[in-house]
Amino acid sequence: MHLALHVLPALILAAMVLLAGTIDRWGRLGAIALGALSIGWLLTNQKMEGPTLLSFTPAHGLTGGDLAGLAGIAIAVWRILDPEGQLLDRPGRRSG
């Protein structure tokens, strides 16, 4: 059980990276899954947090590790609100 507590954050982070890299294939369901994984990351990343970037109180702050969870949530919200990527599809922009 002790080992699982150390491995779980790493597995969540790896799943977040894989899902974020293929998010366009999964639509809203993938965005919801990425959001859930990102929240899971924020709840389990204590062993992998890194330096404190911004302190809110002496015991609470924003760490380097928290940025991965916040980025995952931001991507999830973006893909839920704009599942087809239309906000970035402007005239003159090349589609590849």
Secondary structure layout:
Layout: H1 2-21, H2 23-44, E1 52-57, E2 60-63, H3 66-81
Antiparallel strand pairs: 1-2
Helix pairs in contact: 1-2, 2-3
Keywords:
10% strand; 2 strands; mainly alpha; 96 residues; 3 helices; two-stranded antiparallel sheet
Number of domains: 1
List how many beta strands DSSP finds. 2
Strand order of the largest sheet: 1-2
Number of helices: 3
Characterization of the model:
The protein starts with a helix and ends in a 15-residue tail after the last helix. The protein has a two-stranded antiparallel sheet with strand order 1-2. With 96 residues, the protein is mainly α. The protein has helices spanning 2-21, 23-44, 66-81, and strands spanning 52-57, 60-63. It contains 3 helices and 2 strands. The chain has one domain (11-86). 60% of the residues lie in helices and 10% in strands.
TL;DR of this structure?
The chain contains three helices and two strands, in the order ααββα. With 96 residues, it is mostly helical.
